[in-house]
Every structure is written in structure tokens, then in C-alpha cells.
Specification:
Layout (H helix, E strand, L loop, with lengths): L3 E7 L20 H6 L8 H6 L19 E5 L8 H9 L16 H11 L4 E5 L2 H15 L3 E5 L3 E7 L5 H15 L6 E8 L6 E2 L4 E4 L9 H8 L3 E4 H7 L6 E3 L5 H12 L5 E7 L1 H7 L3 H21 L4 E7 L17 E7 L7 E5 L3 H11 L15
């Protein structure tokens, strides 16, 4: 039916609290609304034309009587609340147990085991924001040459190191050792953060590394189905770190921001290359964690502007899906992500007349639909909406 399917995941662009928001301290969350209302003259004409304003929960974008795309929203059902959990649920993997957040910190016996495993001491070992932890431990970091270890929600453990203290290649190797150590401990990802500069003025560099803690290798999911089907599957390096490098047929290296992602999307659409591609558009999430509502709103406007060039490239044999993986409300007084519905916009390049896809009760509906469209074996959860396209 389609030669090419492109999935754009707007990192953290939630559109309103889910019924289970209280379990995630997310009451009152609406990332899109709070970001949009922070920007004077907020306008996203391309998303509006697609039908974003027709989705329940989106009140800062006018609805349109003739949306170009099919529109709806999706509910996250997995017991996780970050990109790892969201991307895997899209693929058909539902986690029934909440990941370990190590709040207020990693237990001392686990810290000792970790230090023994990587062969060095560590600093911090606490649940703390990465935007201030480097200043907190800078003096000790430079003096002892030890890495800074800290934790985040939903199974994320991070390692931070100044590039003059621990070179990026060495920090990456420590992160890989940590991945092996935390396998089986309800941890989803190890993130390595390199930074430079001086205390009070540290800047993160592009030498970040994300490593997914391995899942059950026999798990059934979209990414395995695409490989079994022999379907070309293109992802960015960041996404490969979440789903594993064994599933994509091509991994795009070195893309760090939304501008780079959208440039690659447009380059891909300028070719005749068939298959499925999946991109996480990242800038929004950073603004959310900084609690920068204005910056977040401007990120959405910038994405909409770039999306204009993408829409011009969508051909008759193309399908474009735009969604998100969780929320990160920039105005709620909490740290971390928020439990929200996510938007779903699906543009059929051959039939630009949209319809209401309703509320999809799991992100896995997206994965099931892609399996249906490419002729792959179905995944175990999710309901396809392919017939509605």
C-alpha cells in the first residue's frame, strides 16, 4: 500500500494528563498547552492543517473542518514514562512493572558492587538533576578523577565526566561496563554525559552515549518483525541505542538535534528509497527538563516551520506518522517526565483527507499498523488502524 513509512516522534510533546496521572505525580499536566501558552503569538500552521487542533486536549491550535491527516491520541499503558518505555510500547512491548528509579539514591551495597564491577570509585550516587550535579561535585571530580553517577526516573542511570578528567572514549567504556552490571536490575538505560568548561559554566558536549540495557532476546516486537520481513528500517543513532543496533538496516550517525533530524528526513524523502524510517525529534524534551516553557513553545514553532518543507516532499506512496512518547510539562513543579496522552497524526500522501482515529488505548496500535501495512507478521498487542487510512 505504501512504499515508504516515516515516523516522527516528538520527544515529550504530551497533550494532557492520562487517567493514571496521579501514579506519576502528573496531575494537571499538559505539556503542549503550557508550552504554547507561554509564547506570544504562538502559531503552528502546518500542524494545524494536519489536524492537531482537532485532537481532544489540544486547545491552543484551532481545529479545521478539513484536516489533511487522520488524527487522534494514544494512551501509554506500559509501566514506564520515558522515551525507552514509549518507543518499546510503540513496538509492542508492554512493561508490567515500573522500572527502578533509585530515589533518593543507589543503595550503598549496590554502589559498592558497581564500583567493584567498573574498577573505580564513583561520586554522588543520588537522584538529582543533571543540570546542577556537575557544579555540586566539580571540585571532588577534578581532585579524585572519579566519574559522577546519578539517577533519573524510569530506570535511567547516568554517568557524567568532564572531558579533561575522563576522556569521552573512556567514559563510553565505563558506561558499557555499567550496562552489563545493571542488566537484570530493572534498569532500562545507561546514559553517559560528557561536559566541558568551568564550574558554574559547564556545557554538555555532543559526546553523549545512550546504551539500552538488553531485553529478552525472544521478545516479539515491531523492530524484530521488520527485520524478519526484510523491510528496510532506518533510525538515528540515538534510537538505535534504545531498540538495539541489531534491528535497523541503517543507522544514521551524529544527529544530535531537531534541525539535524528534520534535515535527514527531508534528504530521505528526496530519494526513492523504500522502507520504514523512525526518528525521535529531541529538542522539546531538553526544554521540558529545564522547565523552560517559553523555550519549549519556541521548539514547537521551529518544528512546525521545518515540517512545512517535509510536507512538500510527501509523495503519493508515502505515509507520515507524527506522535510523541510521553510528556515533560515545563511548568509543573516536579522533576522528570509527565504521564500524558500523546498526539497521533497520520498523513496519507495519496489521499489527503483526514478522519478521526479516536483514542488509541495503547501506543502499540502504531506498531501493529506498520506491521499490517508492510505485510509483516503481527505483534502480540495493539489494534491496527490501517483500514482507516
Amino acid at each position: 500500500m505504501f512504499r515508504r513509512i516515516v515516523v516522527l516522534v516528538m520527544d515529550s510533546v504530551g497533550i494532557g494528563e492520562q487517567p493514571d496521572a496521579v501514579q506519576y505525580i502528573s496531575q494537571g499536566a499538559n505539556t503542549f498547552r503550557h508550552a504554547a501558552s507561554a509564547v506570544t503569538g504562538f502559531s503552528v500552521p502546518n500542524l494545524q492543517r494536519l489536524g492537531l487542533g482537532n485532537i481532544p486536549g489540544v486547545v491552543d491550535v484551532p481545529s479545521t473542518p478539513t484536516p489533511l491527516a487522520h488524527f487522534g491520541r494514544m494512551v501509554e499503558t506500559t509501566s514506564g514514562n520515558d522515551t525507552f518505555a514509549g518507543i518499546w510500547e510503540m513496538g509492542g512491548v508492554i512493561f508490567t512493572e515500573r522500572f527502578e528509579s533509585y530515589n533518593p539514591g543507589i543503595p550503598s551495597d549496590v554502589v559498592q558492587q558497581l564500583q567493584d564491577s567498573i574498577g573505580m570509585g564513583t561520586l554522588c550516587n543520588a537522584y538529582v538533576s543533571g543540570f546542577r550535579v556537575y557544579d555540586m561535585y566539580a571540585d571532588e571530580h577534578f581532585e579524585t578523577r572519579k566519574p559522577i553517577i546519578y539517577t533519573n526516573d524510569d530506570g535511567v542511570v547516568l554517568i557524567g565526566a568532564h572531558e579533561d578528567v575522563i576522556p569521552p572514549a573512556k567514559m563510553h567504556e565505563i558506561a558499557r561496563q555499567m550496562t552489563r552490571f545493571f542488566t537484570g536490575k530493572r534498569i532500562t538505560r545507561i546514559i553517559g554525559r560528557a561536559f566541558v568548561g568551568t564550574k558554574g559554566n559547564f556545557i554538555r558536549t555532543e559526546n553523549r552515549i545512550d546504551i539500552a540495557v538488553p531485553l529478552d532476546k525472544n521478545q516479539v516486537h515491531l523492530y524484530r518483525r521488520l527485520r524478519e520481513r526484510g523491510t528496510g528500517f532506518t533510525v538515528t543513532e540515538h534510537l538505535a541505542s534504545i531498540i538495539g543496533e541489531e534491528f535497523p538496516t541503517r543507522i544514521l550517525k551524529g544527529i544530535k538535534d531537531s534541525t539535524g533530524v528534520m534535515a535527514w528526513v527531508n534528504d530521505l524523502l528526496d530519494t526513492d528509497e523504500p522502507g520504514v524510517s523512525m526518528f525521535v525529534v529531541p529538542d522539546f524534551d531538553m526544554s521540558g527538563h529545564k522547565r523552560d516553557a517559553v523555550g519549549y513553545g519556541k521548539d514547537i514553532v521551529a518544528f512546525d516551520t521545518m515540517l512545512g518543507g517535509t510536507l512538500k516532499r510527501i509523495g503519493k506512496d508515502d505515509l507520515l506518522l507524527i506522535t510523541a512518547d510521553h510528556g515533560c510539562d515545563p511548568v509543573l513543579p516536579i522533576r522528570g517526565h509527565t504521564r500524558e496522552y500523546v498526539p497521533l497524526l497520520v498523513l496519507n500522501g495519496n489521499h489527503r483527507t483526514g478522519s478521526d482515529l479516536g483514542t488509541r488505548h495503547t501506543f502499540a496500535d502504531l506498531g501493529q499498523t506498520i506491521c499490517d501495512l508492510v505485510g509483516a507478521e503481527p505483534i502480540e498487542v495493539g489494534t491496527s488502524f490501517a483500514s482507516q487510512l
